[in-house]
Specification:
single chain, 7-stranded mixed beta sheet, 5-stranded parallel beta sheet, 13 helices, globular, binds flavin-adenine dinucleotide, binds nicotinamide-adenine-dinucleotide
């Protein structure tokens, strides 16, 4: 007798991994449901992550440029520039609301059944949600991640004194002084937002540099540029204590054996995120997490339990929305019988500061460590016509290609549009392109992307404009 199930596919988590998986599964004719404990769909990314942070990055950049008179060299002057923070926050919330409602619309359109509540496994093929039990042939865990706690520091997002990223996206006033613990992506993006809006921002990083994992040249240039913008970035420091005193806090840090205390109106804890499996009762499904709390999966997103899969931030790998989404879509297609894989070595990473920093594939350090003979070519944005016309000449494009085959191994970009530009290299790498393939592809003029073509030309020959 064949077992009958309520659904072919039940997805736990409505973030970019979960909702994309559910939509594709339903598009392919599978009876699909998606459950999320939040009132709104879209997960961390749409509600308290990618989207609100980018809305504030853009708004704060506009404000900063106007308030500082950045456009005066064009003959554009603005007087009495003022900031209505509550309106800026409302605009961000409107964007978030529109996009999360958009996922509801897509669920309706593609016939994904939306369930609301916290899902708990009650067996290997069943979960309880708000007092009801549901069975499914395949269950996908896409429960994402939460901010990592900082030892002996209690985050109080509503209070606004010691906050994590969620609190830093909703402060009610501009802090006079903000101390950011962690010089990673969140620390630099949200540190940039509040610095542009007027805070004096100190970034405390315990490694020897910011942005661990990115190419060394990117890290060096970003540190210099962000310092020039006013971020007080301090590397190789140990945060010893964070004490809240009413409406402010003090941070005690140690640098090379010397102790220092910094007062702050707001302390942002941005020291990483951890996988979220709280309340899932994975044991009831026969699944154990690894020592860091991630759900172990194979290349096809299969967990140790038959019929149960895991994707996105809850599994090991870069905690990025597009990784989660690609894994979700590929998994849904496999569940519908279509062979599909994700290229985990070609996942671009972007930091949305100004300029942006982006990378894909091997860094120069990783290529060296792998003892892989390679060539490197770097082209400065200052020699790119469009960047010059736009007065955004900071940065470079760096391409790393295999010494013998010329196949592109990685690319690293600092540029105002680095996040958009890196897609070209990701696609080239997906197709196994050589630097020559990119160098002889016609690029529209004048565009920032011509810097990619020029860097590619530099691998075996010479760029034209440098
Ligand atoms: P999530 O988006 O975390 O979604 C998981 C969902 O599962 C949540 O909605 C949660 O409520 C739900 N859930 C959890 N447990 C249960 C349960 N038991 N029952 C029911 N529901 C449950 N990434 C980028 O690529 N680009 C960016 O610009 C970017 N910016 C970011 C900015 C910030 C401030 C933050 C915090 C993150 C950012 N990220 C960014 C990371 C990105 O948000 C995550 O990588 C992405 O959201 C992961 O998607 P996911 O589907 O795995 O999980
Ligand atoms: P992260 O891992 O990017 O950075 C954390 C930083 O904190 C690291 O530099 C780390 O060395 C430092 N750190 C850790 N403990 C510390 C301590 N005790 N004192 C001082 N520094 C310490 O993590 P994040 O910035 O919190 O972001 C979390 C995740 O969210 C990341 O994986 C990131 O991929 C994702 N995210 C992505 C984007 C984007 O794609 N643009 C934006 C925001 C967040």
């Amino acid at each position: 007798m064949t077992a009958t199930f309520d659904f072919d596919v039940l997805v736990i988590g409505g973030g970019p991994g979960g909702y994309a998986c559910a939509i594709r599964a339903a598009q392919l004719g599978l009876a699909t449901a998606c459950v999320d404990a939040r009132d709104t769909l879209g997960g961390t990314c749409l509600n308290v992550g990618c989207i609100p942070s980018k809305a504030l990055l853009t708004a704060s950049r506009h404000y900063h440029a106007m308030a500082r008179g950045d456009w005066s060299s064009y003959g554009i002057a603005a007087e009495n520039v003022s900031l209505d923070l509550s309106r800026m926050m409302a605009a961000k919330d409107e964007t978030v609301h529109g996009l999360t409602r958009g996922i509801d619309f897509l669920f309706g359109k593609h016939k994904v059944q939306r369930l609301h509540g916290r899902a708990t496994f009650s067996g290997p093929d069943r979960v309880s949600i708000a007092g009801r039990e549901f069975t499914a042939r395949s269950i996908v865990i896409a429960t994402g991640s939460d901010p990592s706690p900082f030892p002996s520091v209690e985050v109080d997002n509503a209070g606004g004194v010691v906050v994590d990223s969620t609190g830093a996206l909703a402060l009610k006033g501009v802090p006079g002084k903000m101390v950011v613990i962690g010089g990673g992506v969140i620390g630099l993006e949200l540190g940039s937002v509040w610095s542009r809006l007027g805070s004096q921002v100190v970034v405390l990083e315990y490694l020897d540099d910011i942005l661990p994992g990115m190419d060394r040249d990117v890290r060096t240039q970003m540190r210099q540029l962000l310092r020039r913008q006013g971020l007080d970035i301090r590397a190789s420091v140990q945060v010893r204590a964070v004490e809240r005193n009413g409406a402010s806090a003090t941070v005690t840090l140690e640098t090379g054996g010397a102790l220092e205390t910094i007062p702050a109106d707001t302390v942002l804890v941005a020291t990483g995120r951890r996988p979220n499996t709280t309340g899932l009762r994975l044991g009831a499904a026969g699944i154990e997490t690894d020592e860091r709390g991630f759900i172990p999966v194979d290349h096809a997103a299969k967990t140790a339990a038959s019929g149960i899969y895991a994707i996105g931030d809850v599994t090991k790998g870069p905690m990025l929305a597009h990784r989660a989404e690609d894994e979700g879509i590929a998994l849904a297609e496999r569940l519908a019988g279509i062979p599909r894989a994700v290229s985990h070595s070609i996942v671009p990473a972007v930091v949305y500061t100004d300029p942006e920093a982006a990378g894909v594939g091997l860094t120069e350090e990783a290529a060296k460590a792998a003892r892989r003979p390679f060539r490197v070519s770097t082209f400065p944005m200052a020699a790119n016509g469009r960047a010059k016309a736009n007065r955004e000449t900071d940065g470079f494009v760096k391409i790393i290609a295999d010494e013998k085959t010329d196949v592109i191994l990685g690319a690293h970009i600092v540029a105002s549009l680095a996040g958009t530009m890196i897609a070209q290299i990701a696609q080239a790498m997906e197709f196994g392109a050589t630097a020559e393939d990119v160098a002889y592809t016609c690029h529209a003029h004048p565009t920032h992307s011509e810097a990619i073509k020029e860097a590619a030309m530099g691998i075996r020959g010479r760029p034209i404009h440098a």
